[in-house]
Design goal:
- Keywords: Metal-binding, Oxidoreductase, Zinc.
- Pfam families: ADH_N, ADH_zinc_N.
- It comes from Streptomyces shenzhenensis.
- By secondary structure, the chain is an alpha/beta fold.
- It has 2 domains: about 1-150 and about 290-345, Alpha-Beta Complex (Quinone Oxidoreductase, Chain A, domain 1); about 155-285, Rossmann fold.
- The chain is about 25% helix and about 25% strand.
- The strands form 3 sheets. Strands 3, 4, 5, 6, 7, 14 and 15 form a 7-stranded mixed β-sheet that branches. A 6-stranded parallel β-sheet has the order 10-9-8-11-12-13, sandwiched between helices.
- Helix 5 crosses helix 6.
- The longest helix has 11 residues, at about 150-160.
- The radius of gyration is 20 Å and the shape is globular.
- About 50% of the residues are buried.
Length: about 350
Amino acid sequence: MKGYVFHGPGQASWQDVPDPDIKEPTDAIVKVGAVTICGTDLHILKGDVPEVHSGTVLGHEAVGEIVEVGSDVRTVRPGDRVLVSCITSCGRCRFCREASYGQCQGGGGWTLGHLIDGTQAEYVRVPYADLSVHALPAAVRDEDAVLLADIFPTSYEVGVLKGCVRPGDTVAVVGAGPIGLAAIATARLLAPERIIVVDLAPARLEAARRFGADAVADGREAPAQLVADLTDGLGADVVIEAVGVPESFELCTRIVRPGGHVANVGVHGKPVTLHLEDLWSKNVTITTGLVDTYSTPTLLRMAAAGRLPTGQLVTHTFPLDQMEEAYDVFSRAADTGALKVVLGGEQHELAVPTA
């Protein structure tokens, strides 16, 4: 089969790789039907995630069909259409028992496309399949479902819920990429008074308005003043950082109100200055986090009911074998207008051993 293989910072290729097989009785093999590219994949290619070794197939989000399961798998079987979560969970360690699946110590957490071969391939091995794939309702299309593998649960859990968004709040979202837009959509579920979005790209600010932002600001044109003007000088109740650069994080800490929350979602590849000389007396709560995906079943039900604007995020589609072109389009979002790209899998028969 073929997969998109990382070869070190700035280097990756769509190439032949070995077919995956069952290694543990809790594994499943999934024939990939749709995948997407995450901003974290771009961070890997930049060298920001050094634990990803050369030779790893990238990708941690997919929709597909179960083609083989290990002897201990009980909840899915060959032929089932499933969502492959970006997080795998052993279900037994302390963190999994607390639904902190992203911190799994039993061989789970963020493994796909990180510590083991990922989903940007024709087939993928998924460890701990009982807790790491989700059967899909027929009402949810592949291109919608694949966005529930990572960006929607990430935005909802790490941004909205950790940020403690409440009815009547002013929520500021810094960054109107896919994570920021999903944060707007899921924050709206909790009835904030207003959502303010900051970005540098006019096209993304326009997308933020479509997703429900009440006010937008160019990051180069005094966004802190806009937030102050709209909040009688107090600042935002919740600020969601959805970029992952020092400047955006520092802006978040400037526009949050005393007693407010800063929820960092962005993946940072460089150190950030924490201005405790200004923040120590303001009762500000700062949270970070890797998504746990405990909300995925809820979000799937909401998507099936038409309550999430998942399809609006997909701006480009490609066949699976055009992975390199898709990466190029996604990485040049300022020029291409890309929000999320979705790639569909080609037909490829995997040699599954018979019992």
